[in-house]
Amino acid sequence: MKILSTKLPLKSEVTKEQVYKTIIRWLKDGKPCAAAGEQFERAENKDNVRIVDGYATIETLTGKKNDTQYVAIRLTHIYREQTWETEILYGECATEKSVTIHVNCSGDKTTFKKPPIVRTEIIRAFIADGRVESGKLPIQAAPIYADYDMIDYLASVMNTHYDQAIPMVYVSKIFNSSGYNSDIDKLSRNLAGIAYIVAEKSGDFGFNLKERTNGNNPYNGHIAIYYPNGKIDRLRPSEISVYGAADSRIMDDVISVVTAQVDKDAPTWQQLYTDKMAADTALLDVFMGEFDSMEARLDAAKKRIAELTEENTMLRNKNESLQSAFDASGIEESIVTKSPVKEFYDGEQHDLLVTVLKEAAMRNGSFDTRQYELINSLLENNEYIGNGREVEEVVKRVLSSGEQINKRDIAELKRVGFDLVSDNPHYKFVYRGNERYWFTVSKSPSDRRSGQNNASDIIKRITVYQ
Q1: Which helix (H) or strand (E) holds 159?
Q2: Are 200 and 172 a contacting pair, CB within 8 Å?
Q3: Distance separating alpha carbons of residues 383 and 100, to the nearest angstrom
Q4: Domain 144-241 is classified in which CATH homologous superfamily?
Q5: Whole-prediction pTM value?
Q6: Please, is 216 exposed, middle or buried when counting C-beta atoms within 10 Å of its C-beta (0-12, 13-18, 19+)?
Q7: Residue pair 286/149 in contact by the 8 Å Cβ criterion
Q8: Rounded CA gap, 88 and 108, in Å?
Q9: Would you say 10 and 98 are in contact if contact means Cβ atoms under 8 Å apart?
Q10: Distances (CA, A) of 463 to 348, 411, 448
Q11: CA dihedral (35, 37, 41, 47) positive or negative
């Protein structure tokens, strides 16, 4: 699941070495990634590394796209059953330098309505180190207080159009008050590098701005969000009377718009990796054999090999991280003997037992019983591995919309273990080659609800997390 994306313009004098320096400081400041960050700092060739330490994995690669040379750094961090990925892409071309940051989370069903603060510290690290180029408004982790030196610019924005690359949130002061209908300090920190937070410094300023804009400005507690595409969202005090409601809505709206905007033209780790692998003709020659003269199949094979190799790398990262953490735990023997039933994925039986323990913890024993003590101690020392979560995510993503599935959707289902065994009159899938787990999917779903029900039924039959 994509949590957010943002693109920060960098000062022209910023070098690749300085970008690495900021990233290393960010890694070392975070306890779970500190050891991996120290290894990364010692690496001689930082453009091509792969470091695994505990639950953290750091990888780098270089590539070129649309006349821009990129260095991509990816941190994969496993936390409980969640797998977090932070992609940092430093881009340099003849006219500009920038850093694009993507934050992804896979492994659970959480819907994020606000940016997870710990995961966005990398954005504030670039701001704190003075790497980011400011335009007409400074990019910072604190509110920008609107005063008379800004009145001409703000009046121009409100009378004509907004001309910056990231949104501006304008928060007016409540009349006869020193407050706002938003926690501007918290909002500024949460959206640092994602949006500007501009707050009126005085009530008199609002009256003067109103005269210059013929009343188009937000005033007396009103809030407006100005987007680069010309869209303006206005929040009236009556809509945000509950404290905190404005902040939640602002963060949700800003992040969804900025992420969509950045993703239109910004590369990702996967894209750079795919291009790099597609250029590896030695691997393709071995794989393709007699198909080397079939141009269409060759192009498709390039992309497929890149995808499979990337998937294998991600699984290898996860397995090595889990094994490293397991080895460090000092566990010498297992409490439960593993069942001879073949697992659909590594850790399936372990995760089932964790689910059972969680259910037992909710219904068995009180605080002063031995059951309570043992069950909760087991849960503290046995977190979900979470390898089966991706299957649920793919099933929901493909089927819940209620729309007709296409070839890409079928390929996604196949990637996580569903084989298409028949397509007449409906699609029939078998999970992991086990005929006990077969499912039919209509070629023409009736509506979104039927798609959601279908996804729910499939997940209930194969999941160990419910």
Answers
A1: helix 151-159
A2: yes
A3: 32
A4: Glutaredoxin (3.40.30.10)
A5: 0.62
A6: middle
A7: no
A8: 23
A9: yes
A10: 9, 20, 22
A11: positive
Domain with CATH 3.40.30.10 in the chain: 144-241
Q: Which H or E run contains 307?
A: helix 295-329
pLDDT interval class at 321 (50, 70, 90): low
Q: Which residue has the higher pLDDT, 147 or 291?
A: 147
Encode pLDDT of 339-365 as tens digits. 888 888 878 888 899 889 888 877 766
Residue 64 structure tokens:
């070129």
Q: Binning pLDDT at 50, 70 and 90, where does residue 293 land?
A: low
Measure Cα distances from 43 to 26, 36, 210, 440 in Å. Answer: 16, 11, 57, 51
- CATH number, domain 2-128: 3.30.2030
pLDDT digits (tens, 9 = 90+) for 88-145: 999 999 999 999 999 888 755 455 555 667 788 999 999 999 999 988 899 999 999 9
* pLDDT computed for residue 331 by the predictor: 44
Residue ranges of the chain that CATH labels 3.30.2030 = 2-128
**Is 205 in contact with 146 (CB distance < 8 Å)?**
yes
Buried b (16+ CB within 10 A) or exposed e, 305-339: bbbebeeeebeebbeebbebeeeeeeeeeeeeeee
Give the DSSP per-residue string, 138-151. ---SS-EEE-GGGH
- Does residue 282 carry a pLDDT above 60? no
Contact 33, 75 (CB under 8 A): yes
Contacts of 404 by beta carbon, 8 Å cutoff, 6+ apart: 443, 444, 445
Q: For all residues of the chain together, what is the average pLDDT? A: 83
